[in-house]
């Protein structure tokens, strides 16, 4: 949701009760056979994968600052969005499951799983920390959809107990820059959240 807000795109949110299993029902899996969120519909066009949705929406609505057409900048944006999807999301997701989702289901976090993930988390966080040394945003002087994509998996870093404290540049970027974006403030959720399917029909 933060990405579409950031782009200034009008959209309708359709609630999907993830914990009740609505994402596994035929009505939803016809839209996304992966049974995962988010999904965007635009007329008859259906698109899943959050980063693909961001790229599509930014292109359709000509958001040239958030998604510049310069091929070098765009390649850099793509690099970070692909890195997020291939590495960062899965790593942060472990902490979300163990420290957020399990308590909601009256289950205890698995400390062995969390301990095993620690080294990988710090390897990835260091990549971001070094990138953000001396610069406010990932891909230039302004926020882009790459910043939104990379910030998304750690949006509940406190509740998920992500071990981010040693990574000062990463936390400066998150606390000072990302969390100051109106789009982020308008869409931030905490534990007990419901998950949504975006319907963009304009």
Care to give the gist of this entry?
The chain is an alpha+beta fold. 49% of the residues lie in helices and 9% in strands.
Question: How does this structure look, described?
Answer:
This protein has 202 residues and is α+β, with helices and mostly antiparallel strands. The protein folds into two domains: 64 residues, Glutaredoxin, CATH 3.40.30.10; 116 residues, Glutathione S-transferase Yfyf (Class Pi), Chain A, domain 2 (Up-down Bundle). It is 49% helix and 9% strand. The chain contains eight helices and four strands, in the order αβαββααααααβ. The protein has a four-stranded mixed β-sheet, with helices on one face. A hairpin with a 2-residue loop joins strand 2 and strand 3. Helix 4 runs parallel beside helix 6. The longest helix has 34 residues. The chain is globular and about 45 Å long.
What's the structural blueprint in terms of helices and strands?
Elements: H1 2-7, E1 12-16, H2 26-29, E2 39-42, E3 45-48, H3 50-60, H4 71-104, H5 111-131, H6 145-151, H7 168-177, H8 182-187, E4 195-199
Parallel strand pairs: 2-4
Antiparallel strand pairs: 1-4, 2-3
Helix pairs in contact: 4-5, 4-6, 5-7
What would the keywords be for this entry?
globular; 2 domains; Glutathione S-transferase Yfyf (Class Pi), Chain A, domain 2; 9% strand; alpha+beta; Glutaredoxin; 202 residues
């Amino acid at each position: 949701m933060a990405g579409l807000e950031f782009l200034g795109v009008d959209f309708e949110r359709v609630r999907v009760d993830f914990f009740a299993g609505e994402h596994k029902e035929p009505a939803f899996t016809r839209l996304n056979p992966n049974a995962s969120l988010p999904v965007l519909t635009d007329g008859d066009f259906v698109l899943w994968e959050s980063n693909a949705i961001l790229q599509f929406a930014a292109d359709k609505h000509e958001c040239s600052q958030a998604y510049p057409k310069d091929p070098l900048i765009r390649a850099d944006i793509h690099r970070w969005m692909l890195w997020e999807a291939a590495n960062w999301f899965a790593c942060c997701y472990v902490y979300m499951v163990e420290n957020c989702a399990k308590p909601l289901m009256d289950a205890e976090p698995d400390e062995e799983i969390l301990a095993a993930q620690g080294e990988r988390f710090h390897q990835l966080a260091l990549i971001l920390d070094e990138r953000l040394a001396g610069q406010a945003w990932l891909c230039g002087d302004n926020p882009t959809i790459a910043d939104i994509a990379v910030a998304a998996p750690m949006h509940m870093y406190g509740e998920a107990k992500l071990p981010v404290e040693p990574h000062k540049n990463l936390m400066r970027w998150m606390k000072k820059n990302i969390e100051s974006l109106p789009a982020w403030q308008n869409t931030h959720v905490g534990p007990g959240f419901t998950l949504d399917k975006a319907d963009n029909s304009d």
